């Protein structure tokens, strides 16, 4: 196994930082305890030591949302930590044609591995296939391509799980309350992920016959729409016991509407994991008691996986020779008890 | 050859007087009919809301809510109405609201407190309006293109300033304006601003030389020019006015949402144009009313409110909104052609 | 002559619009092969009648018989199928399409029902243009690039591209030069020789005398006379029928002594390349100076350049000895110039607005303090100006679009009267103004001059220039070929000068 000795100060510093970050990656990529040692020690698992240099091409959508911005940050910071990784990052674009062009440029540049967060998974499947055929393995981040042939590994969040975990959290809090009323402030209804989140939430609530979802309105992931829709929901329902809001960004607006309406009789669970939400949970001064993660650290994990791919290694802590073909990040519930652990991953 | 088929039946001198007065009365009546039909639509909506959700809909708090939600887009629509009356269009209003709202809520701006935020929002709005106006009036660009370019660049700049982050406002004076404690006689301050902009807009359009010139430029730009009106300067002022309204709207939005975000003002251009059109403003210019536009805004906001109170989802809301636009315009065409 | 059923027979046609009864039991019958002239003042119902005939309006009552059979003209297409074609005054051509495409619009020659056979369309268009005496028009050119006269030819070619039995022509000669009018009459003659009937609408009595067979006169939505012999009915009788009054086509008398005093308007060496050569002229207060010449001789261009609506290449314009900023309408208006342009609806009037607002638009700041309009003062001033010009109706609140052509022109004059302008530029002041109203308009212009206004007049109707102006400049292709007091010229002499270009004397 070719190894470059630690030479640079930078490597040392980032090596240390990466160890602490590694805890998060484990939280995201692995459901197994890290105490389980691999069966054999001779599998080449990726670690923080510099290895074969890898050029990773990264193409994402326009960072017009806090979470997407955090995705870019996570990818960049993670790549900086490795002295053997060069990151070619494109200007984010929401235009399918433009993103295809950007990815083709990366293919022509012959990067070693591609990490793609498509603006539209279905529409970019062809260019994923093209990269794979050109011998460039693709790590598909979050928004999934149409066919597994278009990626070597998919890593993403669990929208259904978000709803499920939010529903269970609320269910447990309200299980002793007869005739509990719950409302849902959903995200953009045009998106599949919004449907999945709602489905998970509804499925979880089926376990609690005393709880009824009395209203649902869809906002647009923006503060403005969150405020507007929340204000209407509160007017429609004069008394509720819990609220699940799909997204912490629109949650800023929702919290504003709640404050303006002078309501505080219920508990609120957010989604995604914004820093402002974490801070509010920690302060425990308002209705927001918890948020369900859709971790932007998945971008860092994608860089890890891409680096392992480029160096022909598996994932540390797993017995496999190769990295997995699919990694679904867990949608952990962050509440007052564990918020400190996640505080550094909160996005603005 | 044939001889006269119809001998002069009425060869005595008669001044043709019968036709004239009804003609102008019809015009006045028609203007009234337009407003009345909008009020009628609003009344029907209120009836629907009152029947389906009597407790929640017919409630002071709900009235406050509807008017508050109408305030931001309402102020934008007043500016847009002027621009459309003058024969132009401003596609950049939503983007200007976004840019003004994020520029006014950066950490640096917030240090200057209430005044800093208000001043910045208005100044950014005026600045964008100035660019639009100069490009259109003196650069000879078509309004559609110039403001489309402004839409793209203002949104881009807003994104650059925020990096996609939500900028939360921490200035208490600004936040307090959106709270119930600051309602004046039960009227939210945002609604007061909206009302003031409406009244001032109505006065400016109907009682000032500025309003007259706007209508003249929209009705017949060449005639206005040959009558000695400085058409270009008037166009510049109109886009400045629209920018000013966007700046005010951005401030209201900051108060309402307690934050600035680059996604603010999403599709405001279409909502404002739709409200102005169902309010009876001619897209070709030369005619329009502030009252009609404001009624248009109130109709849209009331629909949204009724749908939300009845827990109907956004797909149904969008379909209904489209249907209302078509219905309102058809009704107006009908009343306009039969009276 | 054996009585045969008329080609077209309309009887008892009524049509009402909100507040207006446009047609009140009109009868009209047209024989195959005749030129039937339709006369009447503006608002008499001519336009409505031909729109009913074209299928564009549905009558409220009355019957239409076509070759002896009752028909209903449900749409313009239905009328076209019967063989009725209409050439409107406002040409309904698509500027961005070619001549051939316009001619065949709606009935393009096609292969398999949808593939347009462009070459066939061009060939048939070329044949039609040949027949109309204008083979020089290229079927492939864009209509927007053609002159008004040529556009009219295209419009006519379009009418002839169908199988026609009846052509309605709404003031076809309004935009044409004399020789083009001759060509038009030749075409009309050819058509009637083929048995096609022509319904011809015109304000010009002399044209009706030349080509008309019979005349129907409309007044206030009624046919006050039908089928009068066009050539022998005395003019006085026709005018009396149209106006309900016995009006002589008269010009107001000129003042006894020629106006003296320093010229208020001085034009020095003003020119625009390709439009008109350097021109010098002076107008004194109280004087009416006329520019005569053919269409395309640069008359309108000269006026618009003096007014600052066009920027001159050379020369300057002085008012009271002070030069105006070139190319600035605002500077001209501020110095006291006022223009009544040729295209009143397109260039002067705010058609959606009231008379008051049309009149006050150039003097708004006079009624405004800090931009705030004193509407009482505005209305009062507008009312006074409307009264002074005896504009009818004398209620300045009516929308300007409900006014007749002559009264619309008065509204434009009232605008400049209110502004207190000192030099009035009149471009084709009686275009679209009916005969009865013209004399009144001439009187108004003369009165304004008598009150000290300087007037610069442009008209394509030579008698108008000769009758109204004190001094006349004759133009030929942008050059002034002659200047003389109007009383020393007659129509013949002017036309000679225009045609021959004999040196200025």
CATH superfamily of the largest domain in chain A: Response regulator
Average pLDDT reading of chain B: 88
Cα-to-Cα separation, first versus last residue of chain A = 41 Å
Number of domains of chain B: 1
Layout: helices, strands, pairs:
The complex is a heterotrimer of chains A (348), B (339) and C (505).
Chain A: H1 9-29, E1 54-59, H2 66-81, E2 85-89, H3 96-108, E3 113-116, H4 125-133, E4 138-141, E5 153-156, H5 159-174, E6 180-186, H6 192-205, E7 211-218, H7 223-236, E8 242-245, H8 248-261, E9 267-272, H9 275-283, E10 288-293, H10 298-311, E11 326-328, E12 333-335, H11 339-342
Parallel strand pairs in A: 1-2, 1-3, 3-4, 4-5, 5-11, 6-7, 6-8, 8-9, 9-10
Antiparallel strand pairs in A: 10-12
Chain B: H1 20-52, H2 54-57, H3 60-85, H4 93-103, H5 107-110, H6 113-138, H7 143-162, E1 167-168, H8 172-177, H9 189-207, H10 209-219, H11 221-226, H12 231-257, E2 259-260, H13 268-278, H14 290-309, H15 314-338
Antiparallel strand pairs in B: 1-2
Chain C: E1 8-17, E2 20-30, E3 35-40, H1 46-53, E4 61-66, E5 69-71, H2 76-82, E6 84-87, H3 99-103, E7 110-111, E8 115-116, H4 118-131, H5 148-160, E9 166-170, H6 178-193, E10 197-201, H7 205-211, E11 214-219, E12 222-229, H8 235-243, E13 265-272, E14 276-283, E15 288-292, H9 299-306, E16 314-319, E17 322-323, H10 329-335, E18 337-340, H11 344-348, H12 355-360, E19 368-369, E20 372-373, H13 375-388, H14 405-419, E21 423-427, H15 435-450, E22 454-459, H16 462-468, E23 471-476, E24 479-485, H17 491-500
Parallel strand pairs in C: 3-10, 3-11, 6-9, 9-10, 15-22, 15-23, 18-21, 21-22
Antiparallel strand pairs in C: 1-2, 1-4, 4-5, 7-8, 11-12, 13-14, 13-16, 16-17, 19-20, 23-24
Helix pairs in contact in C: 13-14
Please tell me about this protein's structure.
The complex is a heterotrimer of chains A (348), B (339) and C (505). Helix content of chain A is 41%, strand content 17%. With 348 residues, chain A is of the alpha/beta class. In chain A, strand 9, helix 9 (275-283) and strand 10 (288-293) form a beta-alpha-beta unit. Chain A is elongated, with a radius of gyration of 21 Å. The relative contact order of chain A is 0.16. The longest helix of chain B has 33 residues, at 20-52. Chain B is globular. With 505 residues, chain C is α/β, with parallel strands linked by helices. Chain C folds into 3 domains: 8-243, P-loop containing nucleotide triphosphate hydrolases (Rossmann fold); 249-336 and 422-505, Rossmann fold, CATH 3.40.50.300; 352-420, no CATH class. Chain C contains 17 helices and 24 strands. In chain C, strands 6-9-10-3-11-12 form a 6-stranded mixed β-sheet, sandwiched between helices. The longest helix of chain C is centred in the middle third of the chain and has 16 residues, at 178-193. The N and C termini of chain C lie far apart (57 Å). Chains B and C meet through helix 1, helix 10 and helix 11 of B and strand 2, strand 12, helix 10, helix 11 and strand 20 of C.
């Amino acid at each position: 196994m070719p190894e470059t000795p630690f030479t640079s100060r930078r490597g040392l510093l980032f090596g240390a930082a990466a160890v602490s970050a590694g805890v998060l990656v484990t939280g995201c990529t692995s459901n197994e305890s890290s105490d389980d040692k691999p069966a054999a020690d001779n599998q080449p698992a990726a670690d923080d030591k510099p290895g074969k240099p890898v050029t990773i091409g990264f193409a994402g959508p326009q960072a017009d949302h806090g979470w997407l911005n955090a995705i870019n940050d996570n990818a960049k910071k993670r790549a900086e930590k490795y002295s053997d990784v060069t990151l070619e990052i494109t200007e984010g674009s929401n235009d399918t044609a433009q993103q295809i062009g950007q990815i083709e440029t990366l293919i022509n540049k012959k990067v070693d591995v591609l990490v793609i967060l498509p603006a539209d998974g279905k529409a970019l499947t062809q260019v994923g296939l093209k990269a794979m055929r050109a011998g460039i393995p693709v790590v598909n981040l979050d928004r999934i391509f149409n066919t597994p042939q278009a990626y070597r590994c998919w890593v993403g969040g669990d929208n259904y799980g978000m709803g499920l975990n939010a529903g269970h959290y609320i269910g447990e809090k309200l299980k002793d309350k007869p005739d509990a009323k719950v409302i849902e402030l959903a995200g953009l209804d045009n998106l599949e992920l919004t449907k999945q989140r709602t489905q998970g939430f509804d499925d979880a609530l089926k376990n609690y016959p005393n709880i009824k979802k009395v209203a649902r309105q869809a906002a647009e992931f923006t503060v403005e729409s969150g405020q507007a829709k929340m204000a209407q929901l509160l007017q429609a329902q004069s008394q509720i016991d819990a609220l699940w809001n799909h997204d912490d960004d629109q949650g800023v607006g929702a919290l504003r509407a709640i404050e303006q309406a002078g309501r505080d009789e219920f508990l609120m669970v957010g989604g995604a994991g914004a820093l402002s939400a974490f801070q509010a949970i920690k302060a425990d001064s308002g209705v927001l008691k918890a948020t369900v993660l859709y971790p932007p650290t998945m971008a860092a994990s994608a860089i890890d996986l891409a680096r392992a791919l480029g160096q022909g290694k598996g994932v540390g802590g797993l017995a496999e020779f190769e990295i997995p073909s699919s990694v679904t990040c867990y949608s952990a519930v962050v509440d007052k008890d564990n918020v400190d652990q996640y505080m550094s991953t909160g996005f603005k | 050859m044939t001889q006269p088929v119809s001998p002069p039946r009425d060869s005595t001198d008669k001044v043709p007087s019968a036709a004239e007065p009804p003609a102008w009365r019809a015009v006045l009546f028609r203007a009234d009919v337009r407003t009345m039909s909008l009020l009628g639509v609003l009344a029907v909506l209120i009836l629907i809301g009152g029947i389906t959700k009597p407790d929640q809909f017919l409630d002071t708090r709900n009235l406050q809510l509807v008017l508050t939600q109408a305030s931001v887009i309402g102020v934008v629509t007043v500016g847009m109405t002027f621009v459309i009356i003058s024969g132009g269009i401003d596609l950049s209003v939503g983007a200007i609201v976004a840019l003004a709202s994020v520029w006014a809520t950066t950490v640096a701006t917030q240090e200057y407190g209430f005044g800093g935020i208000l001043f910045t929002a208005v100044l950014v709005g005026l600045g964008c309006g100035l660019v639009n106006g100069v490009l259109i009036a003196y650069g000879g660009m078509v309004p559609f293109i110039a403001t489309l370019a402004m839409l793209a660049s203002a949104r881009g700049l807003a994104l650059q300033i925020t990096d996609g982050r939500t900028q939360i406002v921490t200035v208490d004076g600004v936040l307090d304006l959106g709270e119930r404690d600051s309602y004046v006689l039960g009227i939210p301050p945002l609604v007061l601003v909206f009302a003031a902009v409406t009244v001032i807009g109505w006065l400016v359009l109907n009682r000032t030389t500025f309003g007259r010139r706007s209508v003249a430029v929209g009705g017949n730009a060449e005639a206005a020019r040959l009558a000695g009106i400085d058409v270009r300067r008037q166009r510049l002022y109109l886009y400045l006015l629209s920018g000013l309204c966007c700046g005010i709207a951005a401030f209201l939005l900051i108060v309402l949402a307690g934050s600035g975000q680059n996604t603010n003002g999403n599709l405001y251009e279409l909502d404002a144009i739709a409200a102005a059109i169902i309010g009876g403003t001619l897209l070709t210019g030369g005619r329009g009313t502030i009252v009609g536009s404001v009624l248009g805004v109130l109709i849209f906001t009331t629909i949204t409110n009724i749908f939300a109170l009845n827990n109907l989802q956004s797909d149904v809301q969008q379909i209904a909104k489209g249907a209302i636009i078509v219905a309102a315009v058809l009704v107006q065409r009908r009343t306009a052609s039969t009276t | 002559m054996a009585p045969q059923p008329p080609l077209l027979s309309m009887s008892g046609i009524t049509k009402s619009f909100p507040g207006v009864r446009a047609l009140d039991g009109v009868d009209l019958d047209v024989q195959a092969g005749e030129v039937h002239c339709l006369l009447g003042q503006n608002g008499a119902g001519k336009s409505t009648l031909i729109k009913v005939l074209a299928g564009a309006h549905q009558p409220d009552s009355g019957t239409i018989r076509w070759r002896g059979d009752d028909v209903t003209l449900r749409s313009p297409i239905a009328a076209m199928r019967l063989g009725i074609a209409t050439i409107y005054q406002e040409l309904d051509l698509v500027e961005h399409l070619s001549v051939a495409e316009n001619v065949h619009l709606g009935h393009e020659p096609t292969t398999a029902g949808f593939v347009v056979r462009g070459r066939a369309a061009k060939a048939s268009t070329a044949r039609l243009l040949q027949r109309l005496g204008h083979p020089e028009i290229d079927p492939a050119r864009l209509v927007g690039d053609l002159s008004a006269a040529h556009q009219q030819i295209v419009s006519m070619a379009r009418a002839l591209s169908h199988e026609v039995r009846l052509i309605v022509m709404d003031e076809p000669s309004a935009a044409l030069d004399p020789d083009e009018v001759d060509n038009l009459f030749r075409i009309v003659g050819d058509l009637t020789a083929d048995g096609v009937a022509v319904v011809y609408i015109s304000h010009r009595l002399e044209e009706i005398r030349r080509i008309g067979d019979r005349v129907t006169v409309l007044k206030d939505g009624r046919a006050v006379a039908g089928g009068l012999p066009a050539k022998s009915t005395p003019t006085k009788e026709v005018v009396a029928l149209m106006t309900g009054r016995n009006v002589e086509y008269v010009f107001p008398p000129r003042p006894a002594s020629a106006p003296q005093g320093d010229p208020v308007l001085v034009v020095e060496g003003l020119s625009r390349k390709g439009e008109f050569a350097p021109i010098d002229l002076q107008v004194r207060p109280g004087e009416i100076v006329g520019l005569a010449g053919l269409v395309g001789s640069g008359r309108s261009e000269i006026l618009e350049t003096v007014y600052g609506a066009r920027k001159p290449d050379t020369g300057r314009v002085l008012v009271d000895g002070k030069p105006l900023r070139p190319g600035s309408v605002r500077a001209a208006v501020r110095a006291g110039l006022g223009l009544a342009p040729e295209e009143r609806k397109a260039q002067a009037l705010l058609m959606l607005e009231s008379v008051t607002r049309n009149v006050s638009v150039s003097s708004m700041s006079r009624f405004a303090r800090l931009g705030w309009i004193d509407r009482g003062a505005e209305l009062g001033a507008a009312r006074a100006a409307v009264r002074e010009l005896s504009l009818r109706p004398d209620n300045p609140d009516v929308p300007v679009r409900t006014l007749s052509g002559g009264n619309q022109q008065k509204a434009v004059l009232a605008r400049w009267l209110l502004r207190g302008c000192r030099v009035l530029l009149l471009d084709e002041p009686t275009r679209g103004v009916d005969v009865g109203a013209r004399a009144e308009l001439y009187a108004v212009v003369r009165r304004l001059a008598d009150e000290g206004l300087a007037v610069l007049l442009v008209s394509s109707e030579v008698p108008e220039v000769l009758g109204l102006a004190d001094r006349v400049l004759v133009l030929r292709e942008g050059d002034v070929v002659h200047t003389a007091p109007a009383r020393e010229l007659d129509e013949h002499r002017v036309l000679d000068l225009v045609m021959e270009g004999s040196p200025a004397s």
